[in-house]
């Protein structure tokens, strides 16, 4: 996959996706600026099709598959947001879609994936054996894999967020991105840095799943067991080789945040910005709020809010 994620690929993805996705707005939210200590701009990907950024990458990959690959059906594994996105892509292209979902995934994400016609297979166990099960199904049925994050075409689709940010805020100083499997930060960091190298790009992980933070410390991709974070969308355990190499070149910092700071950020977004973000989406706000990322009063900081697919009962039980 070396050199296969480029600015040209991201621009082609933007053309390919066209009106199949939403150019989400960039919101200047003055109400948050006194708490965060900077100029605050929010990129609310919960307004994207299927409620998260994942539709961009899933569609960019699936739209490039040939008829033979599509005829065999597509498959992936996901805690929920990529599952919904791939189910949407399958429905749009009338392709059989199979998703292996961990048993602890939010109920609403499972239900919405099924509602779009995908076959959902629940899996009890850790991330590595879950992907091994996906490989078994591919060998048995000939499915075509559309990986949730470790794929340059998926990354290029996510990178279209960077182009939208630069179009709407060309003088942005810092872009803060939730970091799970690595596809979102890979695409955005390449898109931003290849256009404006001086812009700071920062990834944020929960302390209960710090695989890329540890990988950066170790100088190599490292597997780190994940705890039960409320930021379920970014609690991946595997640090991928390709994403790690991209981060070494394009990402300025990787910050780690505690659960209580994520909860406070969810409250802040709901109360002051009137945005219902899921836990993964709030980690960037949490990093600035807790001082893990240092900012200046006049610094224009764009926070990518990755999604908003919540079980409402769980949301209110967390932020009450």
Polypeptide structure, described:
With 320 residues, the protein is an alpha/beta fold. The protein has helices spanning 7-17, 33-36, 54-62, 67-72, 81-93, 107-115, 127-141, 152-168, 183-195, 211-218, 241-250, 259-272, 283-289, 312-319, and strands spanning 27-28, 39-44, 74-77, 97-102, 119-123, 144-145, 174-178, 200-206, 253-257, 300-305. Strand 7 (174-178), helix 9 (183-195) and strand 8 form a beta-alpha-beta unit.
* Structural domain count: 2
Give the fraction of residues assigned to helices.
40-55%
Q: Which spans of ≥5 residues are poorly predicted at pLDDT below 50?
A: none
Please give the largest β-sheet.
Answer: 6 strands, mixed
Number of strands: 10
Mean pLDDT: 94
Secondary-structure arrangement, i.e. CATH architecture of the largest domain: 3-Layer(aba) Sandwich
Task: Spell the H/E element sequence.
Answer: HEHEHHEHEHEHEHEHEHHEHHEH
Computed Rg? 18 Å
| CATH top level label of the largest domain | Alpha Beta
Morphology call: globular
Q: Which band does the percent of strand residues land in?
A: 15-25%
- Through-space gap between termini: 45 Å
**CATH topology of the largest domain, anyone?**
Rossmann fold
> Treating each run of at least 4 consecutive H or I residues as one helix, how many helices?
14
Counting helices, strands and paired strands, the structural category is alpha/beta
The largest beta-sheet arranges its strands as 1-2-10-7-8-9
